[in-house]
Write a structure and sequence with these properties.
This protein is 61% helix and 0% strand. By secondary structure, the chain is an all-alpha fold. Helix 4 runs parallel beside helix 6.
Length: 111
């Protein structure tokens, strides 16, 4: 989607707070698709990494990775998430850390 979808960022941020994970998941996925223009969602995406549903945690991590280096403040929480019980979340977190911290830095992150 990219920057053309920037007007959707604030409604998607609101959707991250929905009671239903079936709403939170696609909101996080859309923020990931928007990429760096989703920067206003960083704080809530970090909170969303603690969602009870792994189906929501995964796209939240991917969204932070899609935002890139501007999401550096997420690194400590993402490092904690490397031990998430769901393998798909662990993979998304690894991908996000590589995109945020850079390939060379992320490979040295401890689990």
């Amino acid at each position: 989607m990219g920057t053309e979808a920037k007007p959707a960022v604030h409604p998607l941020i609101a959707a991250l707070n929905d009671e239903e994970w079936h709403v939170r998941k696609p909101a996080a996925e859309a923020l990931a698709a928007i990429g760096p223009a989703s920067k206003p969602a960083i704080s809530l995406l970090i909170e969303t990494l603690n969602d009870e549903e792994w189906h929501v945690r995964k796209p939240a991590a991917l969204a932070l990775g899609a935002i890139g280096p501007d999401a550096r403040q997420a690194i400590p929480v993402l490092k904690e998430m490397l031990n998430d019980p769901e393998l798909q979340v662990q993979e998304a977190v690894t991908d996000a850390l590589e995109k945020i911290a850079g390939q060379s830095n992320a490979s040295g992150l401890e689990r």
